């Protein structure tokens, strides 16, 4: 069989994502802060784009300006010039001026007051300082301790090995080997650090951390240390009866010691660790106006873009097309103009899509906005997509990383999309509503006899909400609620 080369025609349809469509999709799923950063970057890179500014006031015609000058009072600045100075710019003493009294008053001791305009005042950021970290707090105590320079150097090596929770992440032998310190000296320096604030810092595990804090328990210290050393796993399960039987103590005494252990801090570095809180800036605001709700997009800080008039006039002018440099410059301007137009169009389309999605969500969840989470309706992406005539993926991108401020609080837009939970009375409930009911059931339970997942499911069934036990367990874990064995309390 011979191998031949042949040409053939084939007609087919293929979906091609253009760069403009890719840009629109990218802008749609950006959060508000990310969109602001992208627009500012485009303003730097694209000379065609510029930020719109408030319209300037109309210039005063020359005729009107001349009339105003004619009606204005005569200027006496030249008359005063002869008294306070001369033509060479040298100052001339005013007549009968008391310099000694002026200098004495200027240099007189006392409090001087001055009113500053808002523009003269320093910015608020100048008053903000970085909070002290755990490393800074411990290093300050180490330098204040009465130890030698060699011991301080070893202590700094130990501090560098602490994690954000205050635990020692490497062994003493590793610290000694890396820096060439004797092991006994490293152990001695570690004991000094374990006396620092916060109590429990420098521990190598949870047991040692709790034992360091148990030194402050006073008379109950022996019992508390015994529970921590040998029965921490039983304490986790709240099995006080077994601990009391093994330690031969009354259950009430064990419960009191367990309360003291529960008040201890398992992560001593927690108050100093972590980053500064990031405050949420809503993308959409929902206000109640009468019996209805108004949707307003948050465009504060978002630059409003326009095409530069200078480059627009450059393209409209009839330049020398024969010159190669001019033609090349004009082609560059045309490419940047297309890019700028597509960016402006994509931003407008993003804002319009976000508004339509938010408006539709408000329409579906009006009962929630009026009466709270117990009236949150089950809703999926398809419900919104069918209502506004868009694809589900578009709705998903429009609600990604977007937050809305409502009379019920600030929520992510994806919060309103919940699966349906059937009820016996024929009314479907949102999964978030069921989670809220589970949370309230746990809050109202008897602490001595906490409800199991099966009992919580039975309680929901009395309210015509039928969910399986494993569903209750899943929702409970999402809410961060411990199992019934770990929620039990003796008093």
Blueprint of the fold:
Layout: H1 19-28, H2 32-45, E1 49-51, H3 62-71, H4 77-84, H5 99-106, H6 134-144, H7 149-159, H8 172-179, H9 183-193, H10 206-214, H11 221-230, H12 232-236, H13 240-247, H14 251-262, E2 284-289, E3 292-297, E4 305-307, H15 309-316, H16 324-364, H17 366-371, H18 381-388, H19 392-398, E5 403-406, E6 409-412, E7 420-421, E8 429-430, H20 431-443, H21 453-462, H22 469-478, H23 484-487
Parallel strand pairs: 2-5
Antiparallel strand pairs: 1-4, 2-3, 5-6, 7-8
The outline comes out as extended
Individual helix count? 23
Total discrete domains: 3
Number of strands: 8
Strand line-up of the largest beta sheet: 3-2-5-6
CA-CA gap between termini:
92 Å
* Unreliable residue runs: 56-68, 71-95, 97-116
Helicity level: 40-55%
> What value does the Rg take, in angstroms?
37 Å
Q: Calculate the mean pLDDT score and round it.
A: 79
Q: Which secondary-structure class do the elements indicate? A: alpha+beta
Largest sheet: 4 strands, mixed
Q: What share of the residues does DSSP label as strand, in percent?
A: 5-15%
Features:
Arc Repressor Mutant, subunit A, alpha+beta, 6% strand, two-stranded antiparallel ribbon, 49% helix, 491 residues
Describe this structure in words.
The structure is a single chain. This protein is α+β, with helices and mostly antiparallel strands and 491 residues long. It folds into three domains: 20-50 and 276-315 and 327-417, no CATH class; 134-262, Arc Repressor Mutant, subunit A (Orthogonal Bundle); 420-487, Arc Repressor Mutant, subunit A, CATH 1.10.10.60. Helix content is 49%, strand content 6%. Strand 7 (420-421) and strand 8 form a beta hairpin. It is extended and about 95 Å long. The termini are far apart.
